[in-house]
Design a protein that fits this description.
heterodimer, A: mainly beta, Folate-binding fold, two-stranded antiparallel sheet, 1 helix, B: alpha+beta, Gyrase A, domain 2, Alpha-Beta Plaits, 2 domains, 6-stranded mixed sheet, 13 strands, 28% helix, disordered C terminus
Chain lengths: 93, 258
Amino acid sequence: MSFLLTCPHCGVREVADFAFGGEVSVRPRETPTFRELSRYNYFRRNVAGVQREWWYHRSGCRTWFQAERDTRTNVVLRVGLPGELGAELGVGP
Amino acid sequence: MSLDFTVPVASSEERTARSPMERLARAAGASFERRDGWNVAAGYGGDASVEAARITDTVGFCDRSALTKLDIQARAEVLADLVARVAGGLELEPGRASRSPDGSTWWCPITPTRLLVLSEPRSGWDVHTALDGAASAAGEQLVTIADVSCGLAALTLAGPGAGELLSRFCAIDVRPGVTPVAAFRPGSVARTPGYVLREGADRLLILVGWALGAYLWEVVADAAGHLGGGPVGTDALAAAGGGLSATAAGVAEGSADA
């Protein structure tokens, strides 16, 4: 499986340039309950559709950024640095 | 604990810095000279025309690990101001390196907050000192200047086949329309993190981690062999013009073949 991803700094690169950081999730509050902590650590939404994810350009500028990718087609719709994409997908920046 | 030993200083007479590609260059027939504190592969064999022909007709590759490399990190506006003051008003542009007016230094923005400075060894220490001074004068505490000369190995591909050679082991698109002269591209090089700088129409500078320098040499040598290319010394590269003048313009400090 391969697809292209656009780094906000470096531009288009093959996906092997990047490390996947998982879907973006909301950090729990400062003193979470065990249930909240467990949910944050172990549970993912894992949607079949567009989800917002963390990516790291490990072979290039070494920057963490976010991308909105359709998990069914691997089409990347948007990328941006943390805070740039807003909160339309119901997750934090 | 002082980390000075990691920074080859040109004035150091008792120490000679060595490239991670030296062993392979020597096996390929390189003759070495000590220049600006570095053991540099000046040429390969006695016939300089062979190396010159590689650069003009096919492709040659040259170990440039002796370049001074500085990694600077600061807030974007601080970094831009620092460069403008030290480099005579140069402006940083994403994806594009800027060359200092005297042609001795490349200023390569990796991100808006991180910059790689490439300089010939002779002027590298002056650039470092100027940057330190400018950072201090600005009163900015959040500027990090790290000498990564011995953190990044460097190799120049020179000749009409340079782009073809690079494409054998790197997916970065270096067609002139996409990657014009002075374009700077961080990305995977031979499946290892690296940088590509187009120094000229037929000249590409590659940088990868120091520990992978010998690996990079083997990859490039293998690919170049299929294109009729081979290694060239810094003298031949300097004679061809373009790029930084490297150490070839320096005065040899004695043979270091032994």
